[in-house]
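pinging the channel bc i need a second pair of eyes. not urgent but kinda urgent?? the chain im working w is below, pasted from the shared doc
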Amino acid sequence: MKILFTGSNSGGHFYPVIAVAQEVNKIIKEKKLLAPRLYYMAPDPYNKRLLFENDIAFKKNPAGKMRRYFSILNFFDYFKTAFGIIKATIQVFFIFPDVIFSKGGYGSFPVVLAARLFKIPLVIHESDSVPGKVNKWSGDFADRIAISFPDAGKYFKKDKIAFTGNPIRRELYTLASEGAAEFLKLEPDTPVILILGGSQGAKKINDLIVQALPELVEKYQVLHQTGKDKLKEAEATAEVLLEKSDFKHRYRPFEYLNTLALRMAAGASDLIISRGGSTIFEIALWGVPSIIIPLSTAAEDHQRKNAFAYARSNAAIVIEEGNLTPHILIAEINRVLDDNEQIEKMKEGAKSFAHPNAAHIIAEELIRIALLHEK
């Protein structure tokens, strides 16, 4: 059995692939089937360690990014995409997988096109409430389509759709509250706010949080994932703003939270502030109240639509980027954390939105299709 995964260069594409691959390996072991050969084809491996740990062979394949604005890079990326199509066609032919699983995005386009050319069964997954261009196109010939938001269903043929939720890695299922206070150096009786701007961070959110720090640390402890290359700037600004504060120790910035640190930080948190990407699904699984600040420039305005779809479950408050000021953010934080009834309502809403079996459902379908294709 051979399964080929593909997606683009983001955690929102890569980590669900890992989650599904973990479940594939688990099901294969439980059913005592022959060990599968798993491949991941994309412009970049994203995380080599996780690929290695899950026995996934990486196959590099270039793909041009389709920008929605004028850029000279678009011209060069047409050639990159053409080369990627040729290379993917050759690679897919020699692998000839029994099924291909695509997360969409520009990086998946050459592989998905090869799947169509060779009539290889294709399963796609759409994380957003509005599908991206590649998933919209490939949805016409995909064998199965998994979606994370019911709203996405109207863009695809109904007989192909399964509302699964978003695949999440098993290691993130449970929070690690024990030892979190010592590891993160937290005070026992002060509420904790966790800021997640994605693995690359979010400059606008970073700037806003840092500006609000003098008032925030009076009442709260702030764990702040700043993102790569943004830590020093946040630390330097916070040092100036909190110079005379008796509570400057309550601000704890991190460039990146690894899996264990993230589980501890989320487990210790009373409120999470995040973008409107795939992190929403992890927050829902954890059952933590949240404030979602969608990226205003996201393609198809998908983050805003994701955020409001999530908020309809009463799990979160949405603040649009254009309306955001430190004063408004602080007021909303206080409104949530000062109201125990609201906190419980948001926790229940988050849990009702979560779909912890998403990766397992998709993995079972991939194995079913692969076994049929093998015959």
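so The first helix runs from residue 11 to 30. and Residues 242 and 248 are 6 Å apart (CA to CA). — does that match what u expected or am i reading it wrong
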